[in-house]
Amino acid sequence: MSGNVDWVTRDLKVLWHPCTQMSDHEWLPLVPIVSGSGCWLTDASGKRYFDAISSWWVNLFGHAQPHISEAVAEQAQRLEHVILAGFTHPPAITLAERLLVLAGAPLAKVIYADSGSSAIEVALKLSFHYWRNSGQTARQRFVVLEGAYHGETLGALSMTQVPLYRETYGPLLLQPLVTPAPAAASDEASAIAAADAAADALELLLRQHQGTVCAVLVEPLVQCAAGMRMHHPHYLRRLREICNRHQVHWIADEIAVGFGRTGSLFAHQQAGVKPDFLCLAKGLTGGYLPLSAVLTGDHIYQAFYDDYANLRAFMHSHSYTGNALACAAANATLDLLEDPQLLPRTEKLGAGLEQALAPLSDHGHVSGIRRRGLICAFDLVQDRSSQTPYPWQERRGLRVYQHGLERGALLRPLGNTVYFMPPYVATAEDLRWLADVAMEGVELATR
Ligand SMILES: Cc1ncc(COP(=O)(O)O)c(C=O)c1O
């Protein structure tokens, strides 16, 4: 660890890390990473860590992936960035064309932004502004699922329902309407029943707030930061019908679940329905550079298309909108996503991981082992039979994290939810080892 000490000392003098109580680093090691290759990260002392969470879910094909690295390096020799208002460039155009082919009609236009949160801001503003341009000025509210996470800039945070992130800033935030998420279910029939119950609640809410809602914002299939809560595609079919009936937009937040994570290229495709706005980020560049995109339909675009003097344009921008290096990384990532073997392979890897975790299924402190695609999760609970959670202050999940670090795995539970979202280049053997490390961590954490 000696090679780490200098970097850590220098870091703690000057850096304030994201989502961290900095005093934790008095006893929790900060890990200075100097290189990466495939699923593995190497720290300054030479120790390796398996990136089981794809570095906050951004990395799809491993670190320092040769095809993406080459594309970025090549683009950097040509053009690093140009203002996207009044100017354009080939990587941005090509990427938009490719995303629209992958997402399919009626999605027909792409707006770029530069993070997941900024994509959510764009989608919220577009939906609100569409209704305004259409003369429906009473539509000013949004609906979100309980437990939802949609980012942490003020607009996106307003939609986020995770108290840890939201509560402090409550007085500053918009107040969305909150509708129940489909309850956890252990089999297909109960998952469909849970989807129906949640959809019925949404329908009732929209009836009560008729004519005042712009959009329902839903992360399809897996509410990731809510604790990897999974629902049946049936919920999305019902959601689409209900939104149509009440003339309300559906904004699909596929920032985390897009690009193959759930077993299909986009999660909503498993339900055979299309959103009005599709938000993409994270894996869009394979984890290389910050870039996000909002895809929407031509009817939305046309509601803004007018003489300048009528002031109906979408006046929204970020300096790095459509950055050329990020678009080059994204185009290279899409090349890798074209591999027809990819999704069957990730499904097989996911099934293998779930199988490797099977010994936990009768553990007295583990509940809800679940999986969709290559996202796999379970919860640490004080008592499985009564589903009593551990008090959050005990930070049991953190013990799994600490054990992972010791063993060379980057597992970063969400509270007491332990999960796996590895890069697609993991091997079956890697994942069996990872399951063993996690199970050892569970033993230590639940003692
Ligand atoms: C579903 C979802 N939406 C939005 C965001 C925000 O993205 P970013 O952190 O890039 O702002 C995240 C980030 O974890 C997310 O998981």
Draw up the topology in text:
Layout lengths: L1 H13 L18 E5 L2 E4 L4 E4 L2 H4 L8 H13 L11 H14 L3 E7 L2 H18 L7 E5 L8 H6 L3 H4 L10 E3 L8 H21 L4 E6 L3 E2 L5 E2 L2 H13 L3 E5 L23 E4 L11 E6 H5 L21 H14 L4 H15 L9 E7 L2 E9 L4 E2 L6 H12 L1 E2 L6 E4 L7 H18 L2
Parallel strand pairs: 3-16, 5-6, 5-7, 7-10, 10-11
Antiparallel strand pairs: 1-2, 2-3, 4-12, 8-9, 11-12, 13-14, 14-15, 14-17
Pyridoxal-5'-phosphate binds next to helix 5.
**Strand content range:** 15-25%
Provide the residue-averaged pLDDT.
97
Helix content: 25-40%
Q: Profile the largest sheet.
A: 7 strands, mixed
- Count of discrete structural domains: 2
- SS element count, helices: 14
Total beta-strand segments: 17
CATH superfamily of the largest domain: Type I PLP-dependent aspartate aminotransferase-like (Major domain)
The main sheet orders its strands as: 4-12-11-10-7-5-6
Q: Radius of gyration in whole Å, from Cα?
A: 22 Å
User: What distance lies between the first and last C-alpha atoms, to the nearest angstrom?
Assistant: 28 Å
Ions, cofactors and other ligands present here are: pyridoxal-5'-phosphate
Low-confidence runs (pLDDT<50, min 5 residues)?
Answer: none
Structural class by secondary-structure content: alpha/beta
- Principal-axes shape call: globular
CATH architecture identity of the largest domain: 3-Layer(aba) Sandwich
CATH topology of the largest domain: Aspartate Aminotransferase, domain 2
